[in-house]
Amino acid sequence: MNEPARQPASREHGVERLAEIARDLRRDVIRLVAATGQGYVQQGLGAADLFATLYFAELRLDTADMDWEDRDRFILSTAHNTAVFYATLAARGLVSADAVANYCQDGSAFEINASERVGACVEATCGSLGQGLSVGIGMALSARRRSSTRRVYVLLGDGELQEGQVWEAAMMAATQKLENLCLIVDLNRMQVEGDVADVAAIDPVGDKWRAFGWSVQEVDGNDVTALLGAFEQARSVRNRPSCIIANTLVGRGVPELEGIMAHNLRLPPDVAAAALAALD
Amino acid sequence: MQDSKDTELKVGDFNVRSRTPAARLYGTALLEAARQDSRIVCLTADLTLPTETDLIRDELPDRFIQVGIAEANMIGIAGGMARSGDIPFVHSFCVFATRRCYDQIAMQVAYPRLPVKIVGVIPGLSTMLGVSHQATDDIALMRSLPNMTVIEPSEPGQLPSAVQAALDVNGPVYLRLKRAEGSQSTGEARSLIPCKMDVRREGKDGLLVACGMMVPIAIEASDRLAQEGLRVGVVEMATVKPIDPALLDLARKAPVIVTAENHSIIGGLGSAVAELLAESDVKVRFDRVGVRDTFAEGGTTKFLFERYGLDAAHLAERFTRLHARQPKY
Question: Chain A interface, mutation test: which of B39, B75, B84, most A Cβ atoms within 10 Å?
Answer without folding.
Answer: B84
